[in-house]
Amino acid sequence: MTFSIVASNPSTKELCVATSTGLVAVGNLVPSILPNVGAICVQAMVKPSYRETILDLMKNGSSNESAINNVLKNDKKKEHRQIIVVNAKGQTYVFSGLRMINICDSCMEDNFAIAGNMLASGSVISSMKKAFLINSNVFFPKRLLLTLIAGENAGGDKRGCLSAAIEYFKPNRRIMTLRIDYSNNSLKDLSMAQIGRASCRERVEISVGA
């Protein structure tokens, strides 16, 4: 029901996450960044508290995989969850439970990971990966926005996309949060938020509902 990307630029210490779904207010539930530690999305059967717990474990020295496994070890609903994470060093990990709603897919590379479930086609994740790689010279959060758009153009969430969000962190700056909480054109509306370098000097929050 959601498709997302988490990414890190170890050379600049930037972290970014972008996500879109067929439900409302994805930015409130799925993505999170802990500065200088990592970026995460907890999706499918969402449990927002897992975001902070996993990132805190990573901050205290756990690897991505062990942090996720530690949180899920006693979770009876873990097979319904999907979690993607990247740390500040660019190391990634993806967990997809065995009971994800098809089409469920993911990819895990150095510096970025992409995952989705309830997708409209089998080319959503591969299209997102291609877009991320070919836009390597684009400002980091806009690069992830273009990645989401590529996923939507390949079918995206099979129910459509009603909300979308981007979070971005750069050292010595506060986290930038851009959210479209409810719109039939959520990625188009997010594109109109004028993502640019100037917006990252201070905390920016844009939440639009219709």
Description:
With 210 residues, the protein is of the alpha+beta class. Helix content is 26%, strand content 32%. It contains 6 helices and 11 strands. The strands form 2 sheets. Strands 7-8-1-2-9-10-11 form a 7-stranded mixed beta sheet. A hairpin with a 4-residue loop joins strand 1 (2-9) and strand 2 (14-21). Helix 2 (49-59) packs across helix 3 and helix 4 packs antiparallel against helix 5. The chain is globular, with a radius of gyration of 15 Å. The two termini are 21 Å apart. 48% of the residues are buried.
Spatial shape? globular
**Mean pLDDT over the residues:** 91
The residue ranges in which pLDDT falls below 50 over 5 or more consecutive positions are 197-210
Largest sheet: spatial strand order: 7-8-1-2-9-10-11
The helix/strand class is alpha+beta
Number of strands: 11
Write the layout of secondary structure elements.
Layout: E1 2-9, E2 14-21, H1 26-29, E3 31-34, E4 38-44, H2 49-59, H3 64-72, E5 81-87, E6 92-96, E7 105-109, E8 112-117, H4 124-134, H5 140-153, E9 163-169, E10 176-180, H6 186-191, E11 204-208
Parallel strand pairs: 10-11
Antiparallel strand pairs: 1-2, 1-8, 2-9, 3-4, 4-5, 5-6, 7-8, 9-10
